[in-house]
Write a structure and sequence with these properties.
Elements (H helix, E strand, L loop, with lengths): L9 E2 L8 H9 L7 E5 L12 E2 L9 E2 L3 E4 L13 E9 L13 E5 L11 E4 L17 E4 L9 E2 L10 E3 L7 H9 L4 E5 L3 E7 L3 E2 L10 E2 L1 H12 L3 E8 L3 H13 L4 E5 L10 H8 E7 L2 E2 L3 E7 L2 E6 L3 H20 L5 E9 L3 E2 L4 E11 L2 E6 L9 H5 L2 E5 L5 E2 L4 E6 L3 H4 L12 E4 L1
Parallel strand pairs: 1-18, 6-7, 13-16, 13-17, 14-15, 17-21, 19-24, 22-25
Antiparallel strand pairs: 2-12, 3-11, 4-10, 5-7, 5-8, 6-9, 18-20, 20-21, 22-28, 22-29, 23-27, 24-25, 24-26, 26-28
């Protein structure tokens, strides 16, 4: 569908119900990463790298000690044992950050701290606990001599220059979402700023005369705008910048004004919850059709079968169901991959695992995402339903730490059957603290 093309509502008939993968492919078609910007690395967390990074220096930049101890020549202590220690004269003291100008002579040792640069002539480090003076370290008077009671080989307890990173080495490829280790590596390489893709700006509409703000009391027939805040949080968690446009009354001109506000704020995507069905008071559809196009899809998914996609003045628009669980699940399944693509990610990475059902589960044959609690018990992951699977019951999604993914056509699965799991967070709080070996089963898949 060309963005911004005008036309009438396209309603997909039941016989043309889209699969989840077909719907997702349609949403992603034509989406490209947003423009690039340079940011300081301390502002780059969760941003997507827009360029490759190669090392300009070696890491470590010099041979340094991996232990508090004594820099030695390995040949001098090759015969050292507890019963027959080797005595070495202590000729110097090397704290971290100090460069020792004197070379280490045969038969001598220099006290050295972790991270300190090895002196010329030294090729190994004896840990302090392998000497007769285990307490003679930083802040303690330098001993005149030490007894080494354990041999070390060449290079032992030494971090070699370039042992981690060599100059010119490819460190990061473009398209990586930056986390703390990436930022630490950039800082270690002396890179203060980096090119990243701009965060998608997501305009969020909450429609309905029954909605009131969360700081207002509710009267009979009214509810608080939970979806507006939940979807704003989901957009932020997905790397976007949410633009909450507030509650929009059920009036055509009010909806049009809100859409125009999204344009004025330079949004990259409009997301609406509710107001997009075929009901008599659903004005979002009519407002979009004034300056764009909508497709009303029936997607083979539970929860969230009704789904709307289109554009308003070339700005992509997604209409999510109004039930809170449907809104959040369809956001995760469909909108998050859109934001990932706009953010520069080629694929959406998801933490998945396989688990056995602790109880029978059922659905209606649609591809289903069931709220579940996953635990690690008796050497395997086990999944239990988190409560009601009604799309209006948010409390079971709050309790859940995962979604059970039932493929289309599955109407019932027996206890003990293995299923695919999408982790939604909080797994660590549910896993037995005494059985951690199962984490090796966790994998990250990409769509």
């Amino acid at each position: 569908m060309p963005p911004g093309s005008s036309g009438k509502l396209v309603r997909v008939t039941p016989s043309a119900m889209l699969s989840v993968s077909e719907a997702r492919d349609r949403l992603l078609a034509g989406l490209t990463p947003l423009d690039r910007q340079v940011v300081r690395i301390d502002e780059s967390l969760n941003r997507v790298l827009a360029e490759e990074v190669r090392a300009s220096i070696a890491l470590p930049p010099f041979d340094n000690s991996a232990m508090d101890g004594y820099a030695v020549r390995a040949a001098d202590v090759g015969s050292a044992t507890m019963g027959k220690p080797v005595v070495l004269e202590v000729s110097g003291d090397i704290p971290a950050g100090v460069v020792e100008s004197r070379a280490l002579m045969p038969g001598a040792a220099m006290r050295i701290m972790t991270g300190a640069m090895l002196p010329d002539g030294a090729d190994a480090v004896v840990p302090v606990e392998s000497t007769s003076s285990p307490g003679a370290m930083s802040g303690v008077k330098l001993p005149e001599r030490i007894e080494v009671v354990s041999a070390v080989g060449v290079g032992e307890h030494v971090r070699r220059a370039g042992g981690d990173v060599k100059p010119g080495q490819l460190i990061l490829r473009g398209g990586v979402r930056l986390g703390p280790p990436h930022i630490g590596m950039l800082a270690s390489l002396g890179i203060p700023g980096i090119s990243v893709y701009r965060r998608p700006r997501v305009a969020l509409l909450s429609t309905g005369d029954e909605l009131v703000e969360i700081d207002q009391p509710i009267r009979p027939g009214q509810i608080h705008d939970g979806n507006g805040y939940a979807l704003a949080a989901a957009a932020r968690a997905a790397g976007g910048t949410p633009l909450r446009l507030g509650i929009v009354p059920d009036r055509l001109e009010a909806v049009v004004a809100c859409l125009e506000q999204a344009l004025a704020l330079e949004a990259d995507l409009i997301v609406s919850s509710a107001g997009v069905s075929l009901g008599a008071f659903d004005f979002v559809r009519a407002a979009i059709e004034r300056e764009g196009r909508l497709e009303f899809w029936r997607v083979n998914i539970r929860p969230g079968k009704p789904f709307v996609f289109g554009s308003y003045r070339n700005l992509p628009f997604v209409g999510l169901p109004g039930n809170p669980v449907s809104a959040l699940v369809t956001f995760e399944v469909f909108v998050r991959p859109m934001l990932d693509r706009m953010s520069g990610l080629v694929e959406t990475a998801r933490a998945r695992l396989r688990a056995r059902l602790a109880e029978p589960v059922g659905s209606d044959g649609r591809e289903s995402y069931l709220r579940a609690i996953v635990t690690w018990e008796n050497g395997r992951y086990q999944a239990t339903l988190a409560g009601s699977q009604d799309s209006g019951v948010l409390s079971s999604l709050v309790r859940a730490n995962a979604l059970i993914v039932l493929p289309a056509g599955s109407r019932s699965l027996a206890s003990g059957e293995e299923v695919e799991i999408w982790l939604t967070g909080g797994l660590g709080s549910m896993v037995s603290q005494t059985e951690t070996s199962g984490t090796e089963m966790l994998s990250v898949d990409r769509e």
